[in-house]
Design a protein that fits this description.
Strand content: over 45%
Number of helices: 0
Order of helices and strands: EEEEEEEEEE
Largest sheet: 6 strands, mixed
Strand order of the largest sheet: 2-10-9-4-5-6
Distance between the termini: 37 Å
Helix content: under 10%
Amino acid sequence: VQLVESGGGLVHPGGSLKLSCAVSGTSARNTLSWVRQAPGEELEWVSTINIRSNNTYYASSVKDRFTISRDAAKNTLYLQMNRLKPDATAVYYCSPGPSGRNRGQGTQVTVSS
């Protein structure tokens, strides 16, 4: 599976941003995930969607502020991020599983005033 993220940028604290991930090819997994890596930090799982059940899962740090979704017709995964905080500054990746393995090239999100 090939994954290409887009939609990152600079946003003020409290603002919103919507990331996209174009998915091509096939994967044996039933899930798609977003992970992120802040400067100097390890990769962190953010959210997962089960593409069969549409069940969604979130890290406690983003729950109720971030929404993962998928448009099957467009083969695109999304991450709507609201009420952004400076600690959300990171490179965001989509990946087949929650570990971040085989992730895309990433898109930079910077939350700063």
